[in-house]
Design goal:
The complex is a heterodimer of chains A (about 250) and B (about 425). By secondary structure, chain A is an alpha/beta fold. Chain A has a single domain, classed as P-loop containing nucleotide triphosphate hydrolases (Rossmann fold, 3-Layer(aba) Sandwich), CATH 3.40.50. Chain A is about 35% helix and about 20% strand. Chain A has helices at about 40-50, 70-75, 95-100, 110-120, 135-150, 165-180, 195-200, 220-225, 230-240; strands at about 1-10, 20-25, 30-35, 55-60, 65, 80, 155-160, 185-190, 205-210, 210-215. In chain A, helix 3 (about 95-100) packs across helix 4, helix 3 runs parallel beside helix 5 (about 135-150) and helix 5 (about 135-150) packs parallel to helix 6. With about 425 residues, chain B is mainly α. A four-stranded mixed sheet of chain B has the order 2-1-3-4, sandwiched between helices. In chain B, strand 1 (about 50-60), helix 3 and strand 2 form a beta-alpha-beta unit. The chains are: A alpha/beta (about 250), B mainly alpha (about 425). The interface between A and B is medium-sized, with 32 and 24 residues.
Chain lengths: ~250, ~425
């Protein structure tokens, strides 16, 4: 589904690569977690795959579509849920979703019923006509998620989709993402919540300083590290305990 | 097309949800045009109707100074307040208590009379009309200066108008003195009218192209509405660029970049809505000029038979303004960049466009710069319609330039965005 070959990104004026010669294959219907400390290159990788950043070198394809030649078709099959809410605060949840749905060519009653359906599933049915600026962080996160999946993408990129939300919202989001995955959506996800990733992801890759340092199924990785009882301990064993601060 | 309308609908919703912004967008331009016109019209009225208090120091105490005083009083522009000394008058003007002091020098009447009589006698002597053919000894009379003290804070235009008026008055008095001297030399009967002293040459202002019996001279409204409307239309670059910068900060622009929608479509939605705002602004300005101005005692705006051309010009001027706003919004990274730059740039464009100072009165270099200001093209197009009564053919060059400006600025915006965010 996603083929990444020797993908690198070095920002202008940066003294190191954010992503360096990264090779990765993500198969259809996988929930693939990209984990790593701050500055590891997670967001840079997702930004390149979702057409926001130009790779310095290397290439990738998604469902056989190349970012270099088939960007328009590629954008149609991917969905992005960014870390920021990326919503218009003065518009209602329905108006926001109607607009972003329209950008994927959805329209009319089909679009309306899709919006209503998703809002209902994520517990926002009664808030459809409320302005987003009145919403809590968790509610905004859920609208943010719907805006990325209205068009039923084949591949969904999620950049820390549960950051800063309450347990109930997190639970609703994760359950809904699992449902989407069961219906055929491949998910690429980044998070700092390692317990969440351990339970949610079918496969993970831990990256540090732009390179993959280990990858596989969470349970397998835990088994491989004898001293580790969970993914967090694997993570610390592979990335170390030193603070990662970058400016 | 569906995406374009969805974008326009979103922009419309965003705009209508911001009541404060909407009010500012529509009310401030109206307030601007009303304020400017009332001030300008009031300035002319001040000069014509209400009296400006001025100081007069009469060191002459003769017929000429009395004549000047009479002329000043009958001009209906000034309230003459006598001051005994030049020093006191100068101090009062320096302090800003009065805008003007006129000092009539000592012996002005006596010396003028003497000078004129000498000249008249000399002329008559040349014609052999003097009774005694003995040449008069010419006295040395120094030219006299009427001193004008202006408050340093007064505008140059005000000073020039006053100086010109006093100059005319003094010339008239001098001429009358000459006529009087001839009269006295040529006849002993003071009742006998030898000279017709009424001005032979007078002026009549005619608007070019107007029918003689319907000579309508452009008033302050006809000048102000187009100039300040255009200024307001171009101010749309501020809310538009701020709208775009806000989208960047909200992250919605980032989301849109991942959506299968072109930047041109996103800009198209903004263009439709902000162009509509510009046209509504324009319509409100016209309504104010036609209906509100007469109620405020200002000259009424005449739009009869010109509406379609006026809206045509407003449409293309609006497009040019929107294009500039799109470019600024694309390039600016923060509101701190877009707002001050946008506001200052519009003022510069307005200055270059001839909103304050006519282009013909500018230095050559500025005239060249003015030629590349979209506000100058728009202003000329509005003046063409409002004041010169031209047709579509004459308007074409100006509206073509405005449209070209829109295409170029929008094209640069798209190109810049593609280059910056190229994948």
């Amino acid at each position: 589904m996603i083929e990444i070959r020797q993908l690198s990104k070095k920002y202008k004026d940066a003294d190191r690569y954010s992503v360096r010669n990264l090779d990765l294959t993500i198969y259809e219907k996988e929930i693939f977690g990209i984990l790593g400390p701050n500055g590891a290159g997670k967001t840079t990788l997702i930004s390149m795959l979702s057409s926001l950043l130009k790779p310095t070198s290397g290439s990738f394809t998604i469902d056989g579509l190349s970012y270099q030649n088939e960007m328009k078709q590629l954008k149609q099959i991917i969905g992005i849920v960014p870390q920021e809410y990326a919503l218009y605060p003065s518009l209602t949840a329905f108006e926001n979703l109607k607009y972003f749905g329209s950008m994927y060519g959805l329209k009319g009653s089909a679009l309306h019923s899709k919006i209503e359906e998703h809002l209902e599933i994520l517990g926002l049915g009664t808030f459809a006509n409320k302005k987003v600026h009145t919403f809590s962080g968790g509610m905004k996160r859920r609208v943010n998620l719907i805006a990325g999946i209205l068009h039923r993408p084949k591949v969904l990129f999620l950049d820390e989709p549960t950051v800063g939300v309450d347990v109930q919202s997190k639970n609703a989001i994760i359950n809904y993402l699992k449902e989407l995955n069961q219906k055929g959506t491949t998910i690429l996800y980044t998070s700092h919540h390692l317990n969440e990733a351990e339970n949610f992801c079918s496969h993970i890759a831990i990256i540090d300083l732009g390179e993959i340092i280990c990858k596989g199924e969470p349970k397998t990785l835990i088994k491989e590290h004898k001293e580790a009882e969970n993914l967090e301990e694997v993570f610390l064993a592979r990335t170390g305990k030193a603070l990662r601060d970058y400016a | 097309m569906h995406k374009l309308w969805a974008s326009a609908n979103k922009e419309f919703l965003l705009l209508t949800r911001d009541f404060g912004g909407l009010a500012i967008l529509f009310l401030m331009p109206l307030l601007l045009v009303i304020t400017i016109t009332v001030i300008q019209d009031g300035t002319f009225k001040t000069l014509k109707e209400s009296k400006i208090p001025i100081l007069l120091v009469d060191l002459d105490q003769g017929t000429v100074s009395k004549n000047i005083q009479e002329n000043l009083k009958t001009s209906d522009q000034f309230e003459v307040i006598a001051q005994p000394t030049e020093e006191k008058a100068e101090a009062l003007v320096q302090n800003g208590d009065y805008q003007l002091a006129i000092v009539i020098p000592q012996n002005l009447s006596k010396n003028l009379k003497q000078k004129v009589e000498e000249n008249v006698s000399g002329i008559l002597d040349r014609f052999g009309m003097e009774e005694e053919n003995i040449p008069l000894a010419k006295s040395i009379i120094e030219p006299k200066e009427v001193k004008l003290y202006f408050d340093p804070a007064t505008q140059i235009s005000f000073r020039n108008a006053i100086k010109s008026g006093i100059d005319q008055m003094v010339s008239k008095i001098e001429t009358e003195s000459i006529y009087k001297a001839f009269q006295e030399e040529l006849t002993d009967d003071p009742q006998e009218k030898i000279f017709d002293t009424q001005p032979f040459i007078t002026f009549k202002e005619i608007a070019p192209g107007s029918v003689s019996e319907n000579n309508v001279i452009p008033n302050s409204t006809q000048h102000n509405i187009p100039a300040w409307t255009l200024f307001a239309i171009f101010f749309i670059i501020l809310p538009l660029s701020i709208n775009m910068v806000k989208e960047k900060n909200l992250g919605t622009f980032v989301r849109l970049r991942t959506n299968p929608v072109s930047y041109a479509t996103v800009l198209g939605g903004k263009t439709i809505v902000f162009l509509s705002v510009a046209l509504i602004q324009f319509a409100l300005m016209l309504i104010v000029g036609v209906y509100l101005f007469p109620l405020l005692g200002l000259p009424q705006l005449s739009v009869a038979g010109k509406l379609s051309f006026l809206f045509l010009v407003a449409f293309f001027a609006g497009l040019a303004a929107v294009g500039l706003g799109l470019l600024l919004g694309t390039i600016a990274k923060s509101q701190e960049q877009s707002a001050p730059f946008g506001a200052t740039f519009v003022v510069i464009l307005a200055a270059l466009g001839g909103v304050w100072v006519p282009v013909f009165a500018m230095p050559k270099f500025m005239q060249v710069l003015s030629g590349i200001s979209p506000m100058n093209w728009g202003l000329n197009a509005f003046y063409d319609v409002f004041l010169r009564n031209v047709g579509i053919i004459e308007l074409l060059p100006e509206i073509a330039l405005l449209f070209l400006f829109f295409l170029i600025t929008t094209g640069i915006s798209i190109f810049y965005n593609e280059r910056k965010n190229a994948v």
